[in-house]
Amino acid sequence: MIRLKCLLAGCLFSQMLLAQMNIFGTASLEYGDSENDFKFSEHRIDLNGNWNEWTGWIQFEYGKPPQLGRESIGLRKFRIDYVKDNFSFKVGDLYEYWGRGLMLNMVDDQSIDLDTGIRGGQIQWSNNIISAELLGGNQTIWRLTNQVQDFDDRIPNYKVDHQMFGGRIVLNRDQWQGSVQFLKSNENHPNPAKSINEDVSHMMFGTTIQYFADNLDLNIDYVKKDKNGFGLYSNINLFVAEWSLGFTYKNYSFDSRSPLDRWDFVNNTGGALTIQQMPTGFKTHNTSLLGKITHVIDFNDEVGTYLTVSGPVFTDALFTFEWAKSSRHNEWYTDADWIWQSGKEVFLPSDNSLMNPFQEFYGELNGYAMNQQLYYVIGLAKTQDVLDIYLNSEIDNHKSFSYEFLNAMTIPTHFTYRFDKSYSIDILFEYQEKKKGVKTFSSLPSMNQDMFTSLYLKDKQINRFLSIGIAKSPKWSVSLSVDYADTEERAVIEQ
Predict the structure, then answer these.
(1) Tell me, what DSSP letter sits at residue 358?
(2) Which of 65, 316, 344, 364 could cysteine-pair with 379, CB 3.0–4.6 Å?
(3) Rounded CA gap, 126 and 83, in Å?
(4) For residue 206, pLDDT beyond 80
(5) What is the mean pLDDT of residues 399-405?
(6) Is the pTM of this model over 0.85?
(7) What b-and-e string marks burial along 326-338, b requiring 16 or more CB atoms within 10 Å of the CB?
(8) Which comes out higher in pLDDT, residue 474 or 300?
(9) What is the pLDDT of residues 148-189, one digit of tens each?
(10) In sequence order, which ranges of 256-299 are alpha helices (DSSP H)?
(11) By the 8 A CB rule, do 377 and 368 touch?
(12) Which residue, 451, 433, 435, 424, is CA-closest to 489?
């Protein structure tokens, strides 16, 4: 009888427990095979659950091998959260975001194999006026480089470990919000050239100010790192009637490196950390051809401005204009001993081709027509970007320089016509004229050259992209895409 009562009580407790618990999940299954013998098998299962004040998340992965990254089989991620009244804490794999990301922006982007999260804990207390939090944990970053052994363009081969601890206090007052924060990181940095691991300490302090009103919002985010590094991001948006005007100024100056070692994260221990994923300060395109020439931002050394204007031009039509401009802070040149030196520092983007300038104008018209059955997007972009500096010297008042650049004009369009609530046809067409190559100049009498060497078999490349799709919402869709270029890069042909 006693055993029966215990059994009944246990069943009743289990039913009550399950009644208050929710468990749900998602699965992602990917498999690929190609003619060059590359195969991948990458599968992930995410399970989420909640019970009263508790929530949990676990992720299992089978990647042998994954499309990008290192092999992984078993438990990949987990986290437990507890929230009650003004108090909360988290334990496990954390992905937090402070301000605009100048100090802390943790991401897990499987499409590019970038994971900047930490495994540790976070506690937070907050009310309507103030909130405070502390977090800490360990982080392992895997990156891809040809400066260490076992290089493979799909598998990262360079590991850096961090131990991190930080905190933040946020104040809210009417339409204002302000915060102060700090983050300390102890890095274990492998140096393959010296066959040692270096212990490097990083310290950051920052502040954020935000203001929100009906016709205005303002954001200023500043971070000071170690002795000389800093980052500033400021943005203001004005709203007048149905029009909006935005202006952004960014100044990222965490480390100044010569063109030779600008992207060398193996032999340089300073600069921005991978946990600092800052705003780009320019439009990130998602069309096929524009996406391929997106500017590569230098978080260590880039100053820039970004202007946006948007508003209606007629019924059911919206016009957008964007202008982004940036450059490095200094012009780099080689001295008489062929050692790179930096010139005068600037705090506004420069047009000097030897300071890696980037500039893009983009205009877009989008809206509805034909009783809102047709949705259209018509854009025009002009892109100019100096990618690399190869030479910059002056001998006996004779200038010599060489750099790689890209100029492009792109017209992206997108049309969607809905026949009824279910059926629709989608047409994307993009046209691009792209000039990419090396500009070489020398006023030396022995050389006296001013020439352009195209990286293509022709002076410029003409690209076209077409995609036609038919869909029945929400059951199925099918599309056909064609990508055409009238010439190839020389390196591809000459192999």
Answers:
(1) E
(2) 364
(3) 11
(4) yes
(5) 94
(6) yes
(7) bbbbbbbbbeeee
(8) 300
(9) 887 888 888 889 999 999 999 999 999 999 999 999 999 999
(10) 288-292
(11) no
(12) 435
Residue type, 123: I
Q: Which helix (H) or strand (E) holds 14?
A: helix 2-19
Q: Identify the helix (H) or strand (E) that includes residue 492.
A: helix 490-494
How many other CB atoms are there within 10 angstroms of residue 165's CB atom?
A: 14
Per-residue confidence at 246, pLDDT binned at 50, 70, 90? very high
**Tokens representing residue 467 in the block:** 């995609």
Q: Which DSSP symbol is given to 260?
A: T
Residues linked to residue 393 through DSSP beta bridges, in sequence order: 334, 400
Kindly report whether the peptide bond that precedes residue 279 is cis, defined as omega within 30 degrees of 0. Answer: no
DSSP state of 264: -
Contact 147, 123 (CB under 8 A): no
- What are the φ and ψ backbone dihedral angles of 166, each rounded to 5 degrees? -155, 170
State the DSSP code for 227.
T
Largest Cα–Cα separation, the chain? 109
Give the Cα separation of 318 and 310 in Å (integer).
7
Helix ranges (DSSP H) in 202-263: none
According to DSSP, the residues that pair with 130 across neighbouring strands are 171
Predicted confidence (pLDDT) at residue 64 exceeds the cutoff of 90? no
Q: What's the mean per-residue pLDDT of the chain?
A: 90
Report whether pLDDT(345) > 50.
Answer: yes
SS3 content of the chain, % helix, strand, coil (to 5): 5, 60, 30
CA of residue 9 relative to chain centroid, distance: 54
For residue 268, what pLDDT band results from cuts at 50, 70 and 90?
A: confident
Q: Give per-residue burial for 407-423: e unless 16+ CB within 10 Å, then b.
A: bbebebebebebeeeee
Q: What is the DSSP letter of 295?
A: -
pLDDT greater than 90 at residue 406: yes
Please give the Cα distance from 465 to 488 (Å, whole number). 15
Q: Which residue has 């009562």 as its token pair?
A: 5
- Is the separation of the CB atoms in 378 and 395 below 8 Å? no
Contact 79, 49 (CB under 8 A): no
Give residues with Cβ within 8 angstroms of 86, minimum separation 6.
125, 126, 127
Which pLDDT score is estimated for 450?
Answer: 86
pLDDT, average across residues 290-294: 93
